[in-house]
Specification:
16 helices, two-stranded antiparallel ribbon, Growth Hormone, Chain: A, 74% helix, 427 residues, 4% strand
């Protein structure tokens, strides 16, 4: 099983929190595809300007993950999150919204066009983020966070598809650049959060700043000529996605996606709170821990294709899974915040390539399935991202936060088993 990245087979695989799907699947023999584009304004479309706009949108995308994660300690006190299950419920809420809209985002993007879709996305996120800043109870905060996820889930996949259409000869490079900006934005936002903490801003003020940041994407779209809509006529000559999802090999891949989502979203969303509470660190140190984890995951995601080509996918899943599992288990040791941060960074580096590697395996096993199969797999990964933070909170209430983080090691071990089963099934 190969990753497919860098050879033009399956460009554009990447991260969970942006809802990314492969941007291009080679047409089957006899297939036809027609695109008709119109323009929002009287000017000509500039592909580079559209790319810059999409990268800026992706740059702001991590706000819905890092803002609640780094503000959890204060928010838990003010909003009455008395148990860790309640905290996990809140941390996973944005992924509910992403999951709820992801499968429909391509349909809406084709009919609304990028500019109107972007305004709808920004409006939902702005209202949701501002609503959280006024919340006085957990129920309101969760409802508002789901709304944030709905807005965020609208744009990532359509932007990937649009850029792949505008840059047909450089799809892999452009898609990788786009989704790399998610982590670039995460680093800049976390640095800003450290400054906000130094200036004494509370979590409500931070949320309002993030609301304005997200809304700025809509205004940026006013100055870029963008495709207003696309009518796509497709006729594929291969198996339907309904036929593919019933295959045992696909079910193994879907199971792997769930555990990949659990492994990635579970520890990452809890890092600042875990470093503060279990490690006894200050808020800036906790934020730096999440910053380093995000930077490490970006490095892992950008280099995994090179690693897989050198050692093969079988060894990759085994080595990365074991390294991730051992690192997560070591977080249970009370050896201080810097030891815990180091363990989590190593775990992040190891797990970073799981998601795109599984998509690459799906492309190899089902080359004629089309983009819908990848949308389904990405949707399954988001379900794992919902389970991850909740499972940490559930275990933490019973066994403590350190053992809860260590329990996440079960997910990469399960992933190793499923991927070995997948290979032995003849995939």
């Amino acid at each position: 099983m190969s990753s497919g990245v860098g050879r033009g087979r399956n460009p554009g695989v990447g991260d969970l929190t942006g809802g990314r799907i492969p941007c291009s699947v080679p047409p089957r023999s006899g297939a036809t595809r027609t695109h008709v584009w119109t323009v929002n304004d009287t000017g000509r479309i500039s592909p580079r300007a559209v790319l810059a706009l999409c990268c800026y949108v992706m740059f702001t995308g991590s706000a819905h993950v890092v803002t609640p994660a780094t503000s959890l300690t204060e928010m838990a006190v003010e909003l009455g999150m008395h148990s860790d299950v309640q905290k996990g419920l809140f941390l996973s809420a944005s992924f509910w919204g992403v999951a709820g809209v992801m499968l429909f985002s391509g349909f809406l993007g084709e009919r609304l066009g990028l500019r109107r879709l972007l305004w709808l996305s920004c409006s939902l996120q702005f209202v949701g983020i501002w609503w959280v800043s006024t919340a006085t109870d957990l129920r309101t905060a969760v409802a508002a966070t789901v709304l944030i996820g709905l807005g965020r889930g609208l744009v990532a996949a359509p932007m990937t598809a649009l850029l792949c259409s505008l840059f047909p000869e450089r799809r892999t490079m452009v898609a990788s650049l786009l989704h790399a900006f998610y982590y670039v934005g995460m680093i800049f936002i976390l640095v800003a959060l450290i400054g906000f903490h130094k200036w004494g801003l509370g979590w409500r003020d931070v949320y309002r700043i993030m609301a304005v940041l997200v809304l700025s994407c809509g205004f940026a779209g006013l100055f870029v000529g963008t495709p207003a809509g696309r009518r796509t006529r497709e006729k594929w000559g291969g198996p339907s996605v309904a036929q593919v999802v019933r295959q045992p090999a696909f079910l193994l891949l879907a199971g792997g996606m769930i555990f990949s989502g659990i492994t990635e979203a579970g520890p990452m969303n809890w890092v600042p709170y875990f470093v503060e509470r279990a490690g006894g660190a200050s808020r800036p140190v906790a934020i730096v821990g999440m910053l380093l984890l995000g930077a490490t995951m970006s490095i892992g995601r950008l280099t995994f294709g090179f690693v897989v080509e050198r050692i093969g996918s079988a060894r990759y899943f085994l080595i990365a899974g074991l390294l991730c599992a051992v690192s997560l288990m070591l977080t249970a040791l009370p050896l201080g915040p810097f030891f815990s941060i180091t363990c989590l960074i190593v775990a992040g580096l190891a797990l970073a390539g799981n998601f795109p590697a599984i998509l690459g395996g799906a492309a190899d096993r089902f080359p004629d399935a089309g983009a819908s199969m990848f949308a389904v797999l990405t949707m399954v990964a988001v379900i794992g991202a919902i389970i991850g933070p909740l499972s940490v909170g559930l275990v933490a209430d019973r066994l403590g936060l350190r053992l809860a983080m260590a329990s996440q090691a079960l997910a990469p071990v399960s992933l190793i088993v499923l991927m070995a089963w997948f290979r032995r099934s003849g995939a």
